[in-house]
């Protein structure tokens, strides 16, 4: 473990021992990818190297270039199915063997899992699990009912992983509350808010259009509610994100200006110019795109759900994600009210400073320090 002294966003020193090498898992499909790269950037000045083991689908050429830009990250790629996918368990076992072989070869100081099931593996290193989302909480939020019995095996595997982890973290209190309610009490679990670097997203000259970013087909993001209202709004609507569903078919994007999937550097100018950012989400444990929009000085219109209230209450306009009438009414009124737009933009930008990369890095270094201390005590016994 390397000695280092990170600082919080307020400049406070956090004394800890930074790990030299972390074996970290990720998938290239959702927001965890950007989270991993942002955290890697924050850890680099502390001498931390990341062995990044990916699963779920192949890494895209653009993502491969992103990894190449981070000198402290080495990519280890696989295509094993993830635990939340259909019929994944054979692949979960194979990927577990693969991860153990990486640990044996690389000898990391600790293992950072951005998933659950693999925490039960016989790791030689201390293991952190970060609860970014889960199928059961997704089901409740999106379907409005308890998850069906066919997901009981998933529930059991997640619970076993959480119980086996040396430490558990989540990106919001709302997400941690869901994990505790659905699986285990986890009294020692911690909340560490996600972050995005401020240099990547900045306000620009605002134009009269509405922006939304995310998987358009995803019922949790609920971007379809905005698409369906677009014809009746006074401003044009631009949507960036994938429309093709994993199982086939595509989301309807009639009535909006489709930007397609854009890398962060290509998205930044759109955020900078957009006057209003909309995400009427039914389920969003943190919401990195919301933070990117806030850093870019957009007025935020968000789904009224616990996690987004936790992070943005007082700095955003909230709408009922199940009410197309409410969404349309609020957006039409906001488009016509320049003063309210300006106020919301200022409040969102100010709130975004709470989610700094320095603060996230310090939070994880603190968790890593706890894991390292526990491992040293265990080794002496």
Write a structural description.
By secondary structure, this protein is an alpha/beta fold. Helix content is 40%, strand content 17%. It contains 13 helices and 15 strands. The strands form three sheets. It has a seven-stranded parallel sheet, with helices on both faces. Strands 12-11-10-13-14-15 form a six-stranded parallel sheet, with helices on both faces. The protein has a two-stranded antiparallel ribbon with strand order 1-2. Strand 14 (299-303), helix 10 (306-312) and strand 15 form a beta-alpha-beta unit. Helix 1 crosses helix 13 (357-380) and helix 9 (288-295) crosses helix 12. The radius of gyration is 21 Å and the shape is globular. Pfam families: Glyco_trans_1_4, Glyco_transf_4. This is Glycosyltransferase family 4 protein. Residues 29-194 form the Glycosyltransferase subfamily 4-like N-terminal domain. Keywords: Transferase.
Q: Which residues sit in consecutive blocks of at least 5 with pLDDT less than 50?
A: 3-16, 376-381
Q: Largest beta sheet: what is the strand line-up?
A: 5-4-3-6-7-8-9
Assembly annotation: single chain
CATH superfamily of the largest domain: Glycogen Phosphorylase B
What is the residue-mean pLDDT, rounded to a whole number? 92
SS summary, helix count: 13
Helices, strands, pairings?
Layout: E1 2-4, E2 16-18, E3 21-26, H1 32-43, E4 49-54, H2 61-68, E5 73-77, H3 89-106, E6 110-113, E7 127-130, H4 135-143, H5 152-164, E8 167-170, H6 173-182, E9 190-191, E10 207-213, H7 223-229, E11 237-240, E12 257-260, H8 264-273, E13 274-279, H9 288-295, E14 299-303, H10 306-312, E15 317-319, H11 324-335, H12 338-352, H13 357-380
């Amino acid at each position: 473990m390397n000695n280092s002294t990170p600082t919080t966003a307020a400049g406070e020193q956090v004394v800890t021992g930074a790990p030299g090498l972390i074996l970290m898992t990720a998938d290239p499909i959702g927001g965890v990818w950007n989270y991993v790269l942002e955290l890697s950037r924050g850890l680099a000045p502390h001498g931390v190297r990341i062995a990044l083991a990916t699963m779920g689908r192949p890494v895209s050429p653009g993502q491969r270039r992103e990894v190449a830009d981070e000198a402290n990250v080495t990519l280890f790629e696989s295509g094993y199915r993830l635990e939340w996918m259909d019929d994944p368990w054979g692949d979960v076992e194979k990927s577990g063997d693969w991860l153990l072989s990486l640990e044996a070869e690389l000898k990391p100081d600790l293992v950072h899992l951005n998933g659950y099931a693999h925490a039960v593996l016989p790791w030689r290193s201390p293991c952190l699990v970060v609860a970014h989302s889960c199928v059961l909480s997704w089901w409740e939020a999106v379907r409005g009912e308890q998850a069906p019995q066919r997901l009981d095996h998933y529930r059991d595997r997640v619970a076993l992983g959480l119980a086996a982890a040396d430490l558990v973290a989540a990106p919001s209190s709302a997400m941690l509350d869901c994990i505790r309610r659905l699986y285990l009490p986890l009294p020692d679990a911690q909340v560490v808010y996600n972050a995005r670097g401020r240099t990547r997203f900045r306000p620009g000259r605002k134009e009269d259009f509405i922006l939304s970013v995310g998987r358009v087909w995803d019922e949790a993001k609920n971007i379809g509610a905005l698409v369906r209202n677009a014809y009746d709004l006074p401003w044009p609507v631009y949507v960036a994100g994938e429309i093709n569903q994993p199982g086939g078919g595509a989301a309807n994007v009639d009535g909006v200006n489709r930007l397609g999937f854009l890398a962060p550097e290509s998205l930044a100018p759109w955020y900078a110019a957009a006057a209003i950012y909309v995400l009427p989400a039914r389920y969003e444990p943190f919401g990195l795109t919301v933070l990117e929009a806030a850093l870019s000085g957009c007025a935020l219109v968000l789904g009224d759900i616990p996690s987004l209230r936790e992070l943005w209450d007082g700095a955003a306009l909230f709408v009922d994600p199940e009410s197309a009438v409410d969404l349309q009414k609020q957006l039409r009124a906001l488009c016509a009210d320049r003063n309210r737009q300006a106020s919301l933009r200022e409040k969102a930008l100010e709130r975004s400073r709470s989610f700094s990369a320095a603060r996230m890095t310090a939070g994880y270094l603190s968790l890593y320090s706890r894991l390292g201390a526990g491992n040293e005590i265990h080794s002496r016994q």
